[in-house]
Amino acid sequence: MNFTLGKKTYVIVGGILLLLVLMLFIPLCVSKSIQKIDSSIFWLTRFYCWLVAGAMWLYADKVEKQKFLLWQENKYKFSKYLLYVFVILLINLIFPAIVILILQVLMKTKEHSAKLEEVLHMLKGNNLLLLFAAVTAGITEELLFRGYLQPRLEMLFKNAFAAILVSAALFASIHIGYGTVKNIVGPFCIGIVFATFYWKYKNIKVLIFCHFFWDLALLYVSTHYHLPK
Asked: How would DSSP label each residue in 160-229?
């Protein structure tokens, strides 16, 4: 790695701010002007995520003049890949559920996201868009928030734990448009799990698959079994 943080800290900070503007500020501003989400708008939002990933790759290459993925990818045996996927998905089933349950007990309320239900109704019966949404989230969000953001936060803070927490918080913040605490806390917990794995095992492919499979299963179950007929 030939990047000297002391001389170019502003470049790292600039990249982080650019990512936040593209993935949080602009989507929030646009969403306020949209009265109803239909499939064409949702397609555009998914393509937008790919554009952001491309823009950040260009920023790393042309401005930072270094690799998009700073950490070298570790390789494992196929059996270990399966084990990691199983463990991550199992933790994601348990950890966020416990935290959300505790919050609901303390807050004595069960929040309902009208925005999320609107998206689920729109995805119901549109399996191609549902699949594309899961693929897009799995690939672009992992590349951006784990692959790009987390190593740079660790360079900035010089602390792996701080980088894990902040990257998870920023990942959770892009879900703020759904409007409920549960829709922020869930991704935050998942972000901690994913970021901890990436810090320890340095393999983005496992996280991409886990994220994709998690979103695909969650969206499919929600649209086919949890929505009213």
From this structure: HHHHHHHHHHHHHHTTGGG-SSHHHHHHHHHHHHHHHHHHHH--HHHHHHHHHHHHHHHHHHIIIIIS--
